[in-house]
């Protein structure tokens, strides 16, 4: 269990090591290294998702390890409360950023081994604190430092606890 203590409240995440071992181990390693502490949820889109794990409150991107293989083809679905790896348009480009689905986003699921069909790898779910996720979803956003959908007031991951 991973607990993100944010300035809005705690979010507890359970990893699915069986169905998404690469993504889960990658995320856990970032947690163990303290990488996510003092990062923000830098992209919030109502009805879609909240994204974090890559930027400081000053919108400075943090350096990451090498990308991992995309496990979106392992049978987990992007539904409300699941956590998935964020990535670029390239299917196997996920590093440290993640997002939590605030709705059922099954259009993000794997459909084919093509660039458009790969999808986004789910690797766990929120088991406590979904109300905190929903509070984050409601914040006012703006374009900041060239990035859209950034909360006007920083939503900070202050501490990460592994239990």
Automatic annotation (TrEMBL):
Query: Which Pfam families would you find in this protein's record?
Result: Pro_isomerase
Q: Which reaction does it catalyse?
A: [protein]-peptidylproline (omega=180) = [protein]-peptidylproline (omega=0)
Q: Which domain of life is it from?
A: Bacteria
Sorted alphabetically, the keyword list is: Isomerase, Rotamase
Q: Which GO terms describe its molecular function?
A: isomerase activity
Which residue ranges does UniProt annotate as crossing the membrane? none
Signal peptide bounds: none
Q: What is its EC number?
A: 5.2.1.8
Could you tell me which residue ranges the PPIase cyclophilin-type domain spans?
1-162
Family per record: Belongs to the cyclophilin-type PPIase family.
Q: What does this protein do?
A: PPIases accelerate the folding of proteins. It catalyzes the cis-trans isomerization of proline imidic peptide bonds in oligopeptides.
**Can you say what this protein is called?**
Peptidyl-prolyl cis-trans isomerase
Which organism does this sequence originate in?
A: Shewanella electrodiphila
């Amino acid at each position: 269990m991973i607990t993100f203590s944010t300035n809005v409240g705690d979010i507890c995440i359970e990893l699915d090591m069986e169905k998404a071992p690469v993504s889960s181990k990658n995320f856990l390693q970032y947690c163990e290294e303290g990488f996510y502490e003092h990062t923000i949820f830098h992209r919030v889109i109502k009805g879609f998702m909240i994204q974090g794990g890559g930027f400081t409150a000053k919108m400075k991107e943090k350096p990451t390890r090498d990308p991992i293989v995309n496990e979106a083809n392992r049978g987990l679905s992007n539904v409300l409360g699941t956590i998935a790896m964020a990535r670029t348009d390239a299917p196997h480009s996920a590093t440290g950023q993640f997002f939590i689905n605030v709705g059922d986003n099954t259009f993000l699921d794997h459909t084919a081994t093509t660039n458009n069909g790969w999808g986004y790898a789910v690797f766990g779910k929120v088991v406590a604190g979904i109300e905190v996720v929903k509070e984050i979803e409601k914040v006012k956003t703006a374009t900041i430092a060239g990035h859209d959908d950034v909360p006007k007031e920083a939503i900070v991951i202050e501490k990460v606890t592994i239990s």
